[in-house]
Amino acid sequence: MKSSQYVHFFFSNEPLFFLEDLMTRQGGLLWVDKYRPKTLETLDIHPEWTEKLASLCEQGTLPHLLFYGPSGVGKRTRIYALLRQVFGIAIEKRQVEHRFLKVGEPPKEVELTTITSAHHIELCPADVGYNDRLVIQEIVKEIASSKPIELGNVHRGYKVVVLHDIDEVSKQAQQALRRTMEKYTSCCRIIMSAESVTRVMEPIRSRCLGIRIPCPKKEEIEQVLQKIAKKEGLVLPDCYANQLVTQSKGNLRKAILLLQVGRAIAYPFSQQQQKKNEEEEESWISSQETGWDWERLCYDIANIVIREQNPKQLCNIRNKLYELFCHAIPGDMIFRKITLHLLRMMDEEVAPQVCHWAAHYEYGMKRGSKEIFHLEAFLAKVMYIYYSHIHTQYSMAWMDD
């Protein structure tokens, strides 16, 4: 891999699937899995929440829990550590199952991947699309109907259902989950994770103990990176550690993956290489024509909105949006990237209005089912705002003359 490609990895916000693929092909575990803490005592970040969770475990019973925070801050790791504290080493004997559930009336078969142990089951309901409501009801009913297994000194009167990305499921599924939580609360506990708690219904939030996991501090991320580098026998200069921390933007998982990629293609690190990387970084940032294909499409869409505001261009934008969705780019990522480009291109006077309507339409997009409708409506609104702004400026300039 060329140095310029590494710089693009280093300074891109592209999802890190390509990084995982690179390391998997080279053999061995990803460092994010290899060095994942397994107990509450070994967690390196947010010690205040570690103490509170340990206190909950000492009480002998758990309430329903909702972990929420940005991606890559350790929500799943903390859930695993909590289950390990409650149920002991038996929780580590997990197995991945690819199941086919028959749900609904008439029965239809739904494919689902779960991770199970003797004490818990975890899944991502959003993976099954519009069948999420039926899957949640079936899984919770199934695990609640089986008696908890007593192993060794572990005597718990309940099992645990872990639901990831609960903010991505439909409103109907969340309503069904609320009723299910009430019905099986005596023999089943629900632990959920989400990025945005605002997309979780109030009745569910009120029945859970909310635990906000914020982005770790820069010092905490750097400490984790140095710890991993030491275990791998690497020399990680402070300058590179600072670069990783800065570009990860609080995403600990991204920082660790980038460190592993750097180890694979650019180690040992040198001062000359650092200077070259910094120069290529500046070149990459200054050029709007580089980047991934989907990023260039987002830039083109923002550029069309600024350049010309008419129905013909709106149809052109629709075609580009369809192209993005055909390549499985998530709607929220498209929304965020286009909005950032628009804010960089527009005058400061209209930026507050753009931010207001971006929040409005993104909220509608999360509650609706057709993401492209909300994206088109947002871009049409921005066209109108910018068109009005330009003509107001022209009118004022003409009056001054």
From TrEMBL:
Molecular function as annotated in GO: DNA binding; DNA clamp loader activity
Record key words, sorted: DNA replication, Nucleus
Subcellular location: Nucleus
GO BP: DNA repair; DNA strand elongation involved in DNA replication
Keyword check for Oxidoreductase: no
Gene3D superfamilies per record: 1.10.8.60, 1.20.272.10, P-loop containing nucleotide triphosphate hydrolases
Pfam families: DNA_pol3_delta2, RCF1-5-like_lid, RFC_C
Record InterPro entries: DNA_pol3_clamp-load_cplx_C, DNA_Rep/Repair_Clamp_Loader, P-loop_NTPase
Cellular compartments per GO CC: DNA replication factor C complex; nucleus
Family in the record: Belongs to the activator 1 small subunits family.
Protein name per Swiss-Prot or TrEMBL: Replication factor C subunit 3/5
Origin species: Galdieria sulphuraria (Red alga)
Lineage of producing organism: Eukaryota, Rhodophyta, Bangiophyceae, Galdieriales, Galdieriaceae
